[in-house]
Amino acid sequence: MTPLVKHYGSLFHLAATFYLIPCTYNYRENRFGIFWRNTFAFVLMFTIYSSFLWFDIIAIKVSFKFMSMVMLGIMVLYVLTSAFMPIAFALNSLYHREQYVQLFDFLFARDDVILQCSTIRPTTPAMHHRDNLKTLSVFVILNCIYNVMYIAEPNILKLYWISLLRFSELFLMVELHRACANVIKDRMEQLQVLLMNVRNNDTASVEFIVHIFVERFQRYHHLIDSVNQCFSVPLTHILLLILLERTVASYDVYDNFYLLNNMSQWEMTGFLFRQLWTLIYMVVVFMIAVTSSLSSSQVEETALCTRHFDDYRLQNTRAAKQIQKFLLKNLHQKKKFSACGFFDIDNTVIYMVFSSIVTYLVILIQFKQLETDLTQSEGVFNVTSNLTTPGPS
């Protein structure tokens, strides 16, 4: 068992249980594989996820009683997006099951001894990952307390429990993507150190190290495509859900702004908790964007470091030709993490999400004002009609 599998073991176990990934680690063969329990997990989870749709329909029916048409429309869209998210995760994992096995085998199940020996700096993503899982546990406990204390309607309470489960799956999926991006980033850092420390070696060793550098770079560079293939659909769905979640939360603030003074301390506490909870979704956006951006930047930096590689002993050698081909192929071929090819997943995602939330919030406010104006106009029309209607002669 490799150190990475040991550190990320709890994440892999939870993800396989919810069928976020279609494979589990085989400790006897030291590799990832698809086994009968993975098939059973898919059937079980898909059945459970599908049954949850009934609770979403009930919640939408209940919402008709106390929500305006504008808020109801955005809530229906949000609930449906949230409802189909775990189903989309499961189907995506089933469809890309072979790609998942190959990706996790290359990144986590195989020790790259040469690269690990090239640097003595320990890697830290796994420690951050453990802290993130502990943070998730705290969030789940706090949300459970809120649900018990503030939600009185039984059907709405069931929907809140289901939403909490979906949020946990969302968080785990993001952690899986970040784990892959962090491992690629660490490997690229190790490749850079390996190439920078090559000058003190003899010519034969230099040629061997250059060969290792080019081969390993192409391998991990190609794995970015595999990560995009496996995670594009889940990340696109997650970003759409976060966009709707923050739009609903922002509209909730606008809709209740003039009622804050009339709220009791108990109601104010619940309102503030709801807003703080939805801010967690923006933290998730930052986690996705920053991790992917740092990994992509490290890949580009590792490719650029070959421009400064100039050893007179390698003139007119195979190693020199390899470096030249490498430069021609990779310097102008920037590969980034993306969501189905629609947009790159980097720091620009943060701006994209924020700007979209503001845009949709303005549209919702305009619809709300239009709805209010129409209601008032109907009231004035009814009063005018009553005043102008002639009485009986």
TrEMBL record:
Recorded superkingdom: Eukaryota
Transmembrane segments: 6-27, 39-60, 66-91, 271-290, 349-367
Presence of the UniProt keyword tRNA processing in the record: no
Membrane topology, record value: Multi-pass membrane protein
Gene Ontology biological process terms, A to Z: chemosensory behavior; male courtship behavior; sensory perception of taste; signal transduction
Keywords: Cell membrane, Membrane, Receptor, Transducer, Transmembrane, Transmembrane helix
Statement: the UniProt record of this protein carries the keyword Glycosyltransferase: no
Cell compartment(s), UniProt: Cell membrane
Record-linked InterPro entries: 7TM_chemorcpt (IPR013604)
GO terms for cellular component: axon; dendrite; neuronal cell body; plasma membrane
Family: Belongs to the insect chemoreceptor superfamily. Gustatory receptor (GR) family.
Function: Gustatory receptor which mediates acceptance or avoidance behavior, depending on its substrates.
Name the record gives this protein: Gustatory receptor
Organism per entry: Anopheles dirus
